[in-house]
Amino acid sequence: MRVARTSFLFDLDGTLVDSVYQHVMAWKEALDAEGIPLSIWRIHRKIGMSGGLFARMLLRETGLELDEARLERLRHLHAAAYVRQPVAVRPLPGAIELLRYLDEAGIAWAIATSGRMETAKVNLDALGVDPARVPVITRDMVKHAKPDPDLFLAAADRLGVDIRDSLVVGDSIWDLLAAQRANALGIGLLSGGYGREELERAGGFRVYDDPADLLLHIDEVCSRP
Q1: What's the pLDDT tens digit per position in 28-81?
Q2: Residues 75 and 145: beta-carbon distance below 8 Å
Q3: Tell me: the pLDDT tens digits for 134-174?
Q4: GO CC annotations (predicted)?
Q5: Residues near 54 by Cβ (< 8 Å), separated by ≥ 6?
Q6: What region, left, alpha or beta, does residue 183 occupy, with left being phi > 0 and alpha being psi -120 to 50 degrees?
Q7: Strands 7-10 and 204-208, bridge-based pairing
Q8: What is the pLDDT of residue 1?
């Protein structure tokens, strides 16, 4: 008989750290530098995808010719703009306490982000998470990022857990679509700017305000350790 033991697979931006709007403005700066006019609200709707897919979709919306060199420039411009943001990235309310609770309860957890380590490091430092101790899967470690399931499958593999017993926690529809494709349950957080109904329609079986709210209701989603 297979015994289910809950594990948590966390997205990073907008889920554990308050960084979504910093990414939006970094992408805006990168796009402006390339002479690509795009409204900020359109950029926000794509945050959570892989950088490459995000850039391709944005460029497709503008009707401009795609060019690999230009996409690579955009990625580097975005990363450079993000790491020099004047507003410090901070953990979302309850994020550190939630991770501490899981550690103390002996519940396995990992982080899976569509960002590359060059931008993820800023967020991990803010959380006090050491990738040498905690499994952290970044975009450069998998073939495809969200909404494909690769990041979460790789995170579950690193933890040595069954993806079917894992809870994917994310703030965007891309996280929850990836969770469905990975055969994991998805939990949505409102802290990235998506609405409750959007997250539920994308597959979130529970939606909470932020990590603090999830911790407050942890018994609703977590099996006994």
Answers
A1: 999 899 888 888 888 888 887 766 677 677 767 777 766 778 888 888 898 899
A2: no
A3: 999 998 899 988 889 999 999 999 999 999 999 999 999 99
A4: cytosol
A5: 27, 46, 47
A6: left
A7: unpaired
A8: 43
Tell me if residue 220 falls in helix, strand or coil: helix
Helix (H) or strand (E) holding 187: strand 185-189
Distance CA 33, CA 41 (A): 18
The proportion of the chain whose per-residue pLDDT surpasses 70, expressed as a percent, equals 92
Q: One of 11, 18, 175, 210 is an active-site residue; which one?
A: 11
CA atoms within 13 A on the CB side of 110: 23
pLDDT value at residue 171:
96
Query: Could you read off the pLDDT of 110-126 as tens digits, one per residue?
Result: 999 988 888 888 899 99
CA–CA separation, 45 and 23 (whole Å):
12
Domains of the chain from N-terminus onward: 7-19+90-220 (3.40.50.1000), 20-83 (1.10.150.240)
Encoded amino acid at 40, one letter: I
Q: In what order do the strands lie in the sheet containing 166-170?
A: 136-137, 109-112, 7-10, 166-170, 185-189, 204-208
Residue whose tokens read 């350790």: 225
Contact 115, 51 (CB under 8 A): yes
Task: Select which of 13, 148, 171, 210 is catalytic.
Answer: 13
Q: Is 11 a catalytic residue?
A: yes
219 catalytically annotated: no
